[in-house]
Amino acid sequence: NTLENSFINVGDNGVRIKNVKDSTHVSSGVDIQRYSDNQLIVTDFDISKKKIKNKDVLRLDRFRSDNKTTISKLYLNDKFLCHILEDAYNPTKIKGRTRIPSGEYDIGLRLEGGFNARYSRDKRFKDFHLGMLELKGIPQYKYILIHVGNDHKDTEGCLLVGEWDEKTMTVIKSSVTYKRVYNLLIESAINGNLSINIEDNDR
Asked: What is the pLDDT of residues 16-31, one digit of tens each?
């Protein structure tokens, strides 16, 4: 869809998206410029006029779990990125304590909500934050984000990035990992070219 002559503003340090119909930018279908107030302008968002590149596909390999936590390996186009921590598997959803079902989901940006507001202000993230990475179209789940955290108490179905501490069912170095992974994925998410395939190999 074309966002012609329109803006989306979120919060004091939110995201501003504007379409410019006659933009000459052609390399990725989106021209990103950062402003001093930490706003983003995206020009020529009508990707129907561009050559669409192949989708970037994340693969989440769930390989270890117990009654509270799931540990996975996250790959981008078959290259290892980081570990992911989620809630445990439950055959019947328990609110705030159950991981999402396996399957393939698109990933886009969530430009509202508490996480987006906090990350826009957080000194660790505000210099690059353009919106929360959100998994879309999950049956019985909504607002499933990729964010920071260390153990199952820090998530209610979301995906926490980090390095697996093999002595415990936790992840460490989450903030550093988040910055690296986020900046690898954000352009594809903005372009609508990012999805994730989740595999249950832990049971």
From this structure: 444 333 333 333 344 4
